[in-house]
Amino acid sequence: MGKPRKPRSDAKMYQLPKAILQGVDERLVNYNMSYADIRAWLAEKGYTVSQASLSRYAFKVFEAAQRIADDLEKTKAVVDFIGRNPDLDTTEATSAILKSGLLQKISSAEEEFNDMPIEKAGRLFVQLSKAEADRKRTAAAVKKKAELALDELSNEILNEIRKYPDLVADWREVFGRAKKRILDEEGNLDTGS
Questions:
Q1: What does the pLDDT read at residue 10?
Q2: With contact defined as beta carbons under 8 Å apart, do 83 and 91 qualify?
Q3: Are the C-beta atoms of 45 and 20 separated by less than 8 Å?
Q4: What is the 3-state secondary structure (H, E, C) of 8-55?
Q5: What is the structure's pLDDT at 7?
Q6: Among 40, 46, 66, 88, which one has the highest count of C-beta atoms within 10 angstroms of its own C-beta?
Q7: pLDDT at 193
C-alpha cells in the first residue's frame, strides 16, 4: 500500500451535502456573489468553511467552467468543419480528436487526471493506436478488393470488344486513367492527405 493521500486543501467544501454544494456553485457562477456573502449564506444553513477553502474551491469551479466552455467551442468548430467537409472520414477525425485530448491530459497532468492510473491512460492510448492501425488495414483491404474488381471488369469488357481493335486501345487508355483516379482517391482518403 502507498502513502496515505494528503487531504485536499478544499476538502471541507466536498464534505457539504450535495444540495448545499450546488447552491455554492450557483452563487459562484450564476450570481457572482462575494465569498463573504456565500460564507454568510452557508452559516445561515449551519455550515462553516474558511475563506481560503471557499476560494480554492471557487478557483476549481471557474477552472472547470472554463474547460467546459473551451470544450464546447472546440466541439462547435469540429462540427462546423465536418459540415463543410461532408466527405471527411468522421472515424478518423474522432480518433484524432481523442488522441489529441489524451495527449493533452497526459502532458498537462491535471488534478483529476491524477486520479486515473497512468497505466489506464496508456492503455487507452494504445487502444486508439490499434484502432487507427485496424482502420488503415481495412482501408488497404478495401483498396485491394476494388483493384481486383476493376481488373475483372476491365477483362470482361475487353473480352466483349476484342472484335474491334481500335476500341481495345482506347478502352485500355480510358480505363487505365479511370482506375488510377479511383485508386488514388481511395489512397488519399486512407492516408488523410
A1: 56
A2: no
A3: yes
A4: CCCHHHHCCCHHHHHHHHHHHHCCCCCHHHHHHHHHHCCCCCCHHHHH
A5: 47
A6: 88
A7: 41
Alpha carbon distance 91, 139 (integer Å): 12
Closest CA to 15 of 41, 49, 39: 49
CA dist., res. 36 & res. 42, Å (int): 10
pLDDT above 70 as % of the chain: 83
pLDDT of residue 190: 45
Q: CA 96 to CA 103: how far, in whole Å?
A: 10
Separation of alpha carbons 85 and 152, rounded Å? 33
Task: Classify each residue of 157-192 as buried b or exposed e, where b means 16 or more C-beta atoms within 10 Å of its C-beta.
Answer: eeeeeeeeeeeeeebeeebeeebeeeeeebeebbee
Q: Are 124 and 102 in contact (CB under 8 A)?
A: yes
> How many CA within 13 A on the CB side of residue 47?
21
Which pLDDT belongs to residue 49? 92
The CA distance from 5 to 12, in Å, is 15
Judge residue 49's burial from the number of C-beta atoms within 10 Å of its C-beta, 0-12 exposed, 13-18 middle, 19 or more buried: buried
